[in-house]
From TrEMBL:
Pfam families hit by this protein: MIP
Upper taxonomic lineage: Bacteria, Pseudomonadati, Pseudomonadota, Alphaproteobacteria, Rhodobacterales
Subcellular location: Cell membrane
Membrane topology: Multi-pass membrane protein
Species annotation: Aliiruegeria lutimaris
Name of the protein this chain belongs to: Aquaporin Z
PROSITE patterns on file: MIP, PROKAR_LIPOPROTEIN
Similarity field: Belongs to the MIP/aquaporin (TC 1.A.8) family.
Length: 234
């Protein structure tokens, strides 16, 4: 069990450092900055690389909403849920701290409102309100769970799931960065909100409630459409 928790810590650490780090460190220069497309790819690549690196140890969740969704779908032991959540959040906070140290190496940097934070209203990149943010996060997380459950189901070619999952997360970011700066992951939101403070902390509740609800919803939908393996075997 301890090795699983270490793997979840490391995987979530890399997700936040790679995804949020790309947003904080690599988007500011108008001539060479990577923009929203680059940030979207960075998040997808963190999941893809860590799924291959440590997914065989822990299952490669790196996200409390994914762990909850897998539990609802009957693919994950409920006794391991809270320990996974703790490891994921601690990994995200550790990454946020490392990123904060690096970013503060630039003169005049301030993490307040400038730290890959999730938000709605005035804190939304596109000015989207609370209801739009809530719907967006629920739907995007539900679709993420459907991708994960489908890509890892029986009958799907083995070894390709991390690619589908990573590209799925990339697409989710391409859609929803303008709305909420894309969470779909409570640990990711928490890891940077602690260092961005202010509005990010006040709005953090939504980026726990909506992804968790979306993760459970995605699992419920998958259970409705999941192929019956016993029928396939006949």
């Amino acid at each position: 069990m301890l090795k699983k928790l270490y793997a979840e810590f490391i995987g979530t650490f890399w997700l936040v450092l790679g995804g949020c780090g790309s947003a904080v460190l690599a988007t500011g220069n108008l001539d060479v900055g990577i923009g929203w497309l680059g940030v979207s790819l960075a998040f997808g690549l963190t999941v893809l690389t860590m799924a291959y690196a440590v997914g065989g140890i822990s299952g490669g969740h790196f996200n409390p909403a994914v762990s909850l969704g897998l539990m609802v779908a009957g693919k994950f032991d409920r006794a391991e849920l809270i320990p996974y959540w703790i490891a994921q959040v601690l990994g995200a906070i550790a990454a946020g701290f490392i990123l904060w140290i690096i970013a503060n190496g630039a003169e005049g940097f301030s993490s307040a409102g400038n730290f890959a934070l999730n938000g709605y209203g005035l804190a939304s990149p596109g000015g989207y309100g609370l209801f739009a943010a809530l719907v967006c996060e629920i739907v995007m997380t539900a679709m993420f769970l459907l991708i994960i459950l489908g890509a890892t189901s029986k009958g799907v070619p083995a070894g390709f799931a991390p690619i589908a999952i990573g590209l799925g997360l990339t697409l989710i970011h391409l859609i929803s960065i303008p709305v909420t700066n894309t969470s779909v992951n409570p640990a990711r939101s928490t890891g940077v909100a602690l260092f961005g403070g202010g509005t990010a902390m006040l709005q953090l509740w939504l980026f726990w409630v909506a992804p968790l609800a979306g993760g459970a919803l995605g699992a419920i939908i998958w259970k409705m459409i999941e192929p019956d393996q016993s029928e396939d075997a006949n």
